[in-house]
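Anyone up for a design puzzle?
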């Protein structure tokens, strides 16, 4: 159980970005054999990224064990608490990384390249880049972009620039949100836990959250109204899901300032109103994108 815990399975939810191309690439529904192949490939890509991410989580926890012991929650992690030895953790991390590369290669060599890029980038992050203010959040966002690109690769759809831009803007917002929650939770002890938090202030992070949340919404609007998007889906109705996007972002931003949650994952997994808003948005997007296949007629909205 403790070895599964150091793999942080609850953080695997971050890898749902792999499924973005499956939905927006119109691969979710279609001929049964093609749909099953696309879904199976996307699930395979998701599993590969779960293994790769777990390898990095373990590697990062090994390095951060001394500082994790200063954190009110992270000090209970098996590596920081001493219930898992550094040697055992290193072996599990290596096994996860090797399994991720091998399994991804079996799907497609291009996915294996992306997985390797992700692992190298995140190792650099753990060793050096996470100590560089602002760059730390940018690197995390690039990691999520690699997830989205991987999803496009495994289901064999063109990699849309909008997929990358929207993912980057949203995840930059999530990255700064995590820093804001850490400061709210740790207070005066935040610097001793993470050096970069000394450079971040609540006021600066509030400004960064405003900018990145606005950027994420604008990117989505531009994507929804883009001529190629309208041609691909045969409708511009995606723009009408913007209120749901705004609700989720505003709800997330409001809660992250309270310090009640230690990070985005905890908030997403525990806040029911946010979960409902996100679920309704996803269902709405699927209904709009696959309206022709589902036999849905939006009537007066298509004018």
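Challenge accepted. My sequence:
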């Amino acid at each position: 159980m403790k070895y599964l815990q150091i793999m942080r399975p609850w953080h695997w939810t971050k890898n749902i970005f792999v499924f973005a191309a499956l939905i927006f690439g119109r691969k979710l529904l279609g001929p049964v054999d093609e749909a099953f192949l696309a879904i199976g490939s996307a699930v395979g890509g998701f599993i590969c990224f779960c293994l790769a991410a777990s390898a990095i989580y373990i590697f990062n926890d090994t390095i951060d064990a001394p500082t994790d012991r200063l954190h009110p929650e992270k000090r209970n992690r098996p590596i920081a608490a001493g219930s898992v030895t550094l040697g055992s953790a290193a072996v599990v991390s290596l096994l996860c990384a090797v399994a991720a590369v091998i399994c991804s290669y079996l799907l497609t060599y291009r996915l294996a390249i992306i997985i390797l890029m992700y692992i190298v980038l995140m190792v650099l992050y753990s060793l050096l880049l996470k100590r560089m203010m602002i760059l730390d959040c940018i690197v995390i966002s690039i990691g999520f972009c690699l997830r989205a690109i991987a999803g496009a690769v495994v289901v064999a759809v063109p990699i849309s620039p909008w997929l990358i831009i929207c993912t980057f803007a949203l995840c930059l917002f999530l990255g700064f949100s995590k820093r804001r929650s850490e400061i709210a939770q740790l207070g005066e002890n935040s610097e001793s836990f993470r050096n970069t938090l000394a450079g971040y202030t609540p006021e600066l992070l509030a400004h960064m959250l405003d900018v990145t949340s606005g950027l994420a919404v604008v990117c989505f609007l531009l994507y929804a109204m883009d001529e190629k998007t309208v041609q691909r889906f045969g409708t511009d109705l995606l723009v009408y899901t913007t209120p749901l996007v705004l609700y989720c972002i505003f709800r997330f931003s409001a809660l992250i300032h309270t310090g009640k949650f230690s990070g985005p994952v905890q908030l997403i997994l525990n806040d029911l109103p946010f979960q409902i808003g996100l679920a309704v948005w996803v269902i709405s997007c699927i209904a709009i994108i696959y309206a022709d296949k589902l036999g849905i007629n939006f009537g007066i909205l298509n004018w």
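A detail worth pointing out: The CA atoms of residues 168 and 201 lie 22 Å apart.
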